[in-house]
Predict the structure.
Amino acid sequence: LMQNREEFKKRLLEIRDTRKREIVERLDKRFEEIGDKMTDHFTKVVDRLEDVLTKVETRADKAEAAGKDVSLVRAAIDKATPLIVSARTAIAEQVSKTYPIELTDEEKLGDDVSASRKNMHTDLRGVREVIQDLRAAVVDAVAALRGIPGVDDEEPEVATSTPSAS
């Protein structure tokens, strides 16, 4: 990584037009900032989705204790759980990636910058898709939980006898 950075700086000095050099340098730094910002964002999204799934599981436990059938909820949770691991793995891989601008020559600066940006965009889209799959699985778990009649009742249903008028 440091070797790439040093090589980039050397190649950057070969650009005679100082304005172009400054723009490329700024864009290189901006790509790094965007990568950091997006991985932080993705991590927060996965954390929130994991919290929601934990709450669904807790409510499913209560519903089960109250005698409700929670098999659909459990199946949805089982589907979502490995997706959390996949999303965290995708984020970790993304954190380790860098997008140095491969400078070829001054005439092709735009193409060089564009290629680097396109690579970053493609990788970020891949992480986003994994997270969207996770989000859909969590939404399914929430929907399955909502589909249980009386799941929001605080007290477990207790058979009460009412005096019959005879």
Summary: DSSP finds four helices and no strands in the chain. Residues 34 and 120 are 9 Å apart (CA to CA). Confidence is low (pLDDT under 50) at residues 156-166.
